[in-house]
Fold this protein.
Amino acid sequence: MTRHTTSLPPDYFDARYAADPDPWNFSASPYERDKYAATLAALPRPHYAAGLEIGCSIGVLTAALAPLCDTLVALDVAEAALAQARARCRDLPHLRLLNAQVPGDWPDGTFDLILLSEVVYYLDAADVARLAARVRQSLHPGGDVVLVHWTGETHYPLTGDEAADLFIRETRDRLAVDRQVRTEAYRLDVLRDGRSTDSAKMTASSTTNICD
Ligand SMILES: C[S@@+](CC[C@H](N)C(=O)[O-])C[C@H]1O[C@@H](n2cnc3c(N)ncnc32)[C@H](O)[C@@H]1O
């Protein structure tokens, strides 16, 4: 398996969704269901004012996360995935779904939760550094960042461990590792902004413009 050396482009994901509308079987896999439950259970707070989900795909995790947020912005680079997410989440008026490619694109606003589930390893190291800068800039003081990554062998630019470790290194001036869970298949990292624990006072004020 030849490993990609640069961030995977949008047409890689367009081709995957064209071949199979649910290429990772998010909607039916017991593994994904259990991982999603573990992800939500690991969130340090029961509720967030403004959540941001990067790489939301067809919106299965998005739909489960949305009730825990006053507002939620979820973005993905693949329009075919977003179309499914829009249909799945049509009854969630506090959710904004955006077509965006991080780290070049990034939504305006500040967020007290940023979720990066199975997405950082599609980026190369330089883009992970840019992603980390975006997260640092838009995370509300005291906010939480959650990473979840499969730890098997990949042909992506990074493995799950490389992606998570690099992101943690790039954000360590701001974010402390609060909790790490490792199963046979994935790792889950909960990072917390040490600037303040006052994010409960944050009001939902994020907007959905994309800056680049
Ligand atoms: C494996 S899926 C993960 C879906 C979901 N986060 C989950 O854990 O179930 C990865 C998604 O990230 C999206 N993606 C990959 N690179 C991206 C980027 N640079 N910007 C935005 N979305 C990206 C892909 O289109 C794909 O839908």
